[in-house]
Amino acid sequence: MTHDGHEHDHDHGHDHGHEPHEPLVVEDEAGNIEGQIRVAALQALLVARNLVAPQEVRREIERIEAPGVHLGAKIVARAWTDAAYKARLLDNGKSAAAELGIGVGEAQLIVVENDEATHNLVCCTLCSCYPRSILGQPPAWYISKAYRARVVREPRAVLKEFGLELPVAMRVVVHDSNADMRYLVLPQRPEGTQAMDEAALAELVTRDCMIGVAVLPAA
Amino acid sequence: MTRGYHDIGGASAGEIPIVELPWLQWEKQVEAIRNVLGDGTRRMMSLDELRRGFESFGEEKYRSYSFYRRRLEAMLDILIEKGVFTREEYEAAVAEARAQWEPAPECAP
């Protein structure tokens, strides 16, 4: 993103959003420039003290940019097509991810399976824990106060806001992540996908269904 | 027991702001610097320390800062607390960095 030539039509420091209730705190243009200046100053100090080399930060940025939903989708598609793999995945998410060359460095990984009777949903009420090495950065709403606060008390109401209404008889299980444990939802394989191979199946899997705020439609 | 201001699970709140935001360069830089400082060779900043930073720097700051600004300010507090640099040294570095962000002069019509 560039900061040049942007006209400021406001003079406040931080934009606290426009939602009536619990706004997502986002930076406006001035706030983003301030953030850039302050982090640049931090890096300059750390480099001057030989604590960090500039190329280390660049490399680390490349490393954290790399993971994305495609990795989670690969895990899910393998579990759908290989029952033995699925069993290992549900037993130990981290080692099963490693089998596919996906390193989960940040914490343990617990994979929770949706079925006809149970729907799983993931959150982090205390902060922003999320399986970043599998899904990339969490979406803004995942770290919003409203999601963190409400999802553990009224998950069905929250899901309805995402456009998902589950049958009353279905059990909804909410998993609160923490620094040592991250969760990934294994969605149900959609109807009508019997003829699809693993690569085609992976294309169907979305981020939201691996967080649990969506389910996959029949193909 | 008093709950910390970050401990909001079960609290009431408004509608979920279902938005997707781009991940900006400075935000990536904040994450990257934290990761590098917390790696096995340095061990200068664990995730738990970072959380302790923003979970104890006061509700007003916590509520008014954006997600990455919160992490950046917590990191600064902790590094200053550890004596890696002083607040004054940091503010001097900010002044230097700011000088590189002078707005461009207006174009002549």
UniProtKB/TrEMBL annotation, chain A:
Residues 1-22 are annotated as: Disordered. Pfam families: NHase_alpha. Residues 36-214 form the Nitrile hydratase alpha/Thiocyanate hydrolase gamma domain. Keywords: Metal-binding. SUPFAM superfamilies: Nitrile hydratase alpha chain (SSF56209). InterPro entries: CN_Hdrase_a/SCN_Hdrase_g_sf, CN_Hdrtase_a/SCN_Hdrlase_g. GO terms for molecular function: catalytic activity; transition metal ion binding. This is Nitrile hydratase subunit alpha. It comes from Xanthobacter tagetidis.
TrEMBL record, chain B:
Pfam families: NHase_beta_N (PF21006). Residues 4-100 form the Nitrile hydratase beta subunit-like N-terminal domain. InterPro entries: CN_hydtase_beta-like_N, CN_hydtase_beta_C, Elect_transpt_acc-like_dom_sf. This is Nitrile hydratase subunit beta. It comes from Xanthobacter tagetidis.
